[in-house]
Design goal:
Elements: H1 2-6, H2 40-50, E1 63-72, E2 91-100, E3 115-123, E4 126-133, H3 146-153, H4 164-172, H5 178-184, E5 199-200, E6 205-208, E7 214-223, H6 232-241, H7 245-255, E8 261-270, E9 296-305, H8 310-315, E10 328-329, H9 334-350, H10 425-433, H11 436-450, H12 456-469, H13 471-481
Antiparallel strand pairs: 1-2, 1-9, 2-3, 3-4, 5-7, 6-7, 6-10, 7-8, 8-9
Helix pairs in contact: 3-4, 4-12, 5-10, 11-13, 12-13
C-alpha cells in the first residue's frame, strides 16, 4: 500500500483522479462482445477527445508565442503614472503572441498578410494588453466595417476558396485601405521571421501622469534583429516545404538561447495638437510624422522562454485592448472603440466567461470583484464573501484616483465619418520613398494579386486610387494588368 501511494503521481487516472486499470482494451461483454457503457474511462476519454479543440480565433487563428520580460530604459514618469513604466531598470514579465490575420489555424506562416503583434504585460497593477500589428496602420478606421472586411479575407461560402474579386471589390470601395494595401503588397508584406519585423500598437492611446496631465501616444516596437523580408517566390518555396516556418524559427531561436528583442519607443503628442494636426491623429489608417513627433525610447522587450504547452498558453491566451492599467487610457479612435468590446466578447465566446482564471491570463495581483459563477469557474468563486456592491460589509470598493482621465468632446450624436477624407497623400508618400527595386516588386505583387479579379470595373476602380496616390504608381499597375485609358 505504501509503495502504491509513493508512486501515485505516475498512476494513470480519470479526470476525477481515480486510477485506470487498463488503457489498452475497452471493457466488453466477453472477449468478442459489444463494448459496455459502464466503461467510464473509455467514455470520458472519447468525450474529452471530442472537445479538445476550442473554437479557433475568427482572426489571428495561426500564431506562435513566447514568454519574456520588459525592462524600462528611460524614465517617462512625466508622461504616465503606469507603475511598470515608472523606474529605469524595472522588469515586468510578459507573454507575446504573433499571428497571421486571415488564415486558419493550420494555414501557412509565409502568406502575404499583416502579422498580429500582441503583448500581455503582467504588471503589479493588473494585466496590460497591447494588441497591435506589424504595421503602424490598418485597412479600415471604423469597427462597423470590420466584419465585412474580414469576410472578404476568408473563404467564399460557395467555393470555399479565397476570393480575389471580393478582396479587391471591398478595397476599391474603401479607399481608406490604400495606405495599408501599399504596405501589405510591399516587401514588408511577408516578414522573413517573426523576429525580423517591427510591432506597433497602431492605435492612438492616452497617457496620464500622477498630476493628471495627459498626452496622446503611439507605440513602436523596433526589432533589434533588423528587418528581413521574403519575396513572394521565396515565401512560396518555404510554404511548400515548411508551412510552419515562423513558428519553428521562433521556438528554435529561443531554445538555442538566441533571445529575440525589441526596443519599445513612443511618439508623444500634446492633447491640444490633435485638433489642428494635418491628419486626424485618431484615424488608424494614418501615421504621425516622426519629424513632427520623434520617437522616444521607453525600454526593451526580450523573449527568453518557450511555452511548455502550446494549447494552454499560446491557444488559450486572451488579449484585449480593454485591459489597461492606471496611467494608460483610450482615445476616440473609432476602430479602437469597437475593439474594446469585440476582443473581450470573442474570448468569452471562445474560451469562456472565466478565461481570466487560466494561468496564462491570470494577473499577478489577482482579480478582486463581484463576478460570480459561469462555466469552468476554477477558483473559490468568491467563497462566502459579499457578492454585491455597494455594500456595508467591507467588500472591495472603487478607487477614484484610478478613474480614466477625462477629455472634452462636442457635436451631435450621429453616424458620421471622420472629417479627413485624404486617403492618398500618405500612400503616395510611401510609394515615393521606396527604392526602385522595391517599387518594382510592389507593383508586381499587386498585379499578381489582381490578375484573378474577373470584373474589370473593380480593377479600374482600384487603379484610380493608385493614380490618385501617385500617377506613376497607378500607371505601372495598369500597364501590368493590360488596362488602358485609366
Amino acid at each position: 500500500m505504501t509503495k502504491n501511494l509513493d508512486n501515485s503521481k505516475n498512476n494513470l487516472t480519470t479526470d476525477a483522479g481515480a486510477p485506470i486499470g487498463d488503457n489498452q482494451n475497452s471493457m466488453t461483454a466477453g472477449s468478442g462482445g459489444p463494448v459496455l457503457i459502464q466503461d467510464v474511462a473509455l467514455l470520458e476519454k472519447l468525450a474529452h477527445f471530442n472537445r479538445e479543440r476550442v473554437p479557433e480565433r475568427v482572426v489571428h487563428a495561426k500564431g506562435a508565442g513566447a514568454h519574456g520580460y520588459f525592462e524600462v530604459t528611460n524614465d517617462l514618469a512625466r508622461y504616465t503614472k503606469a507603475d511598470f513604466l515608472g523606474e529605469v531598470g524595472k522588469r515586468t514579465d510578459l507573454f507575446a503572441r504573433f499571428s497571421t490575420v486571415a488564415g486558419e489555424s493550420g494555414s501557412s506562416d509565409t502568406l502575404r498578410d499583416p502579422r498580429g503583434f500582441a503583448v500581455k504585460f503582467y504588471t503589479e497593477e493588473g494585466n496590460y494588453d497591447l494588441v497591435g500589428n506589424n504595421t503602424p496602420i490598418f485597412f479600415i478606421r471604423d469597427a462597423i466595417k470590420f466584419p465585412d472586411f474580414i469576410h472578404t479575407q476568408k473563404r467564399d461560402p460557395q467555393t470555399h476558396l479565397k476570393n480575389h474579386n471580393a478582396i479587391w471589390d471591398f478595397w476599391s470601395l474603401s479607399p481608406e485601405s490604400l495606405h495599408q494595401v501599399t504596405i501589405l503588397m510591399s516587401d514588408r508584406g511577408i516578414p522573413a521571421t517573426l523576429r525580423h519585423m517591427h510591432g506597433f500598437g497602431s492605435h492612438t492611446f492616452k497617457w496620464t501622469n500622477a498630476e493628471g496631465e495627459s498626452v496622446w501616444v503611439k507605440y513602436h516596437f523596433k526589432t533589434e534583429q533588423g528587418i528581413q523580408n521574403l519575396t513572394s517566390e521565396v515565401a512560396q518555396t518555404i510554404d511548400g516545404s515548411n508551412p510552419d516556418h515562423h513558428t519553428e524559427d521562433l521556438f528554435n531561436s529561443i531554445e538555442a538561447g538566441d533571445y529575440p528583442a525589441w526596443t519599445l519607443k513612443v511618439q508623444i503628442m500634446p492633447l491640444e495638437d490633435a485638433a489642428n494636426y494635418r491628419f486626424n491623429p485618431f484615424d488608424v489608417t494614418k501615421v504621425w510624422s516622426q519629424k513632427d513627433y520623434p520617437l522616444i525610447e521607453v525600454g526593451r522587450m526580450v523573449l527568453d522562454r518557450n511555452p511548455n504547452n502550446y494549447f494552454a498558453e499560446v491557444e488559450q491566451v486572451t488579449f484585449t485592448p480593454g485591459n489597461i492599467v492606471p496611467g494608460i487610457d483610450f482615445s476616440p479612435d473609432k476602430l479602437l472603440q469597437g475593439r474594446l468590446f469585440a476582443y473581450g466578447d470573442a474570448h468569452r465566446h471562445r474560451v469562456g466567461a472565466n478565461s481570466h482564471l487560466l494561468p496564462i491570463n491570470r494577473p499577478k495581483n489577482e482579480a478582486n470583484n463581484y463576478h460570480r459563477d459561469g462555466a469552468m469557474r476554477s477558483d473559490s468563486n468568491g467563497g462566502s464573501s459579499v457578492y454585491y456592491e455597494p455594500n456595508s460589509l467591507g467588500g472591495p470598493t472603487e478607487t477614484p484616483a484610478n478613474k480614466q482621465a477625462s477629455f472634452a468632446i462636442s457635436g451631435m450624436a450621429d453616424s458620421v465619418a471622420y472629417d479627413d477624407d485624404d486617403h492618398y497623400t500618405q500612400a503616395g508618400d510611401l510609394y515615393r520613398l521606396l527604392p526602385e527595386d522595391e517599387k518594382t516588386r510592389l507593383v508586381a505583387n499587386i498585379v499578381g494579386h489582381m490578375m484573378p479579379v474577373a470584373d474589370e470595373a473593380i480593377k479600374r476602380r482600384q487603379i484610380a486610387h493608385f493614380v490618385k496616390a501617385d500617377p506613376e504608381y497607378g500607371a505601372r499597375i495598369a500597364a501590368g494588368l493590360g488596362i488602358e485609358n485609366v
